[in-house]
Amino acid sequence: xxxxxxxxxSLKINYNYLQQxxxxxxIEWAPxxxxxxxxxxxxxxxxxxxxxxxxxxxxSNLINIKSINPxxxxxxxxxxxxxxxxxxxxxxxxSFNTEFTTIKWLSEEAVKQDKVHRIIIMIELGDLREGILxxxxxxxxxxxxxxxxxxxxxxxxxLNCLSGIMPSKDKLIQLSLYxxxxxxxxxxxxxxxxxxxxxxxxxLLKKQIPKGINHFRIGETLFFGIDLFSNKTITKMKxxxxxxxxxxxxxxxxxxxPYGEIEKNPSGEILEINPExxxxxxxxxxxxxxxxxxxxxDFLEPxxxxxxxxxxxxxxxxxxxxESSKKYQIGGVVSFKMKYMGALRIMNSKYIDKKLH
Length: 357
Known about the structure:
Helices cover about 30% and strands about 25% of the residues. By secondary structure, it is α/β, with parallel strands linked by helices. The strands form 3 sheets. Strands 1, 12, 13, 14, 15, 16, 17 and 18 form an 8-stranded mixed β-sheet that branches. Helix 4 (about 85-90) packs across helix 5 (about 100-115). The two termini are about 15 Å apart.
């Protein structure tokens, strides 16, 4: 059975690097743990690394977090659906919001539960996902401010996750100015101006983050050590926190070109034939993982760089082992690094074991 390993040493290096980076810049941060898909073994380890708040976009994951550490401060990082209001108030100490109607529901539920629910108002900065338009912020805050058992603890923004709009110093200055407007108009302190996700870290490293931005939510860079501007690993961070390991179930020297009448495969693809490949063979390995688990090979990178992908069906992945100098055998393992979206999908598969390493 294929399995994922989480390398504790590499993750701790990344966690400590981020802790030091943010402390040096007087910024608070919260790890985004949706990558772990609520896996309790992984959550227990990550929660042991520090006292920071944690973020997730799935309530079932927040429930798992609270079951492990009831005192851990949790942030629900998307506007709540109506059906989930009671659980949001119960399991999320803070939630992101953009609609007055939703916040009113949160207020009513917080009164029922005798709790004060904290919210962060998300502001649109151009990526066109969640967020109210800036010109409506003061009126919006005024209405929300009057609701019982609701505390506006911050404002925030999201970039790059939908339309690919990259962050800039100017956009972050704009966000920090909105906080200043609220404080000046209403005489209320905005605790958090949460500037964004992993995509902001390159700006921080270049000292281009305005002083008003005092909070980050970090997932991808924590788990993959990546600079999302350059798509390279940040110096002193690790890119091997997660590895996908798949067992070899067949190794055979076979023709490169299939024989018989070719039609579309179940994925709707028609194999392109290189005429030069007729009559040639290569060493093909079949692995015990398929599209049901990985969806696509686009987010996988063999650790052995001499291995290339041939194709995949629902339950099996076929690779070319011809150029590798390693002596692969039946029952052996081929390991892959993963990009964020690939790891997220695979972590969500019940067919893939999850192990600590």
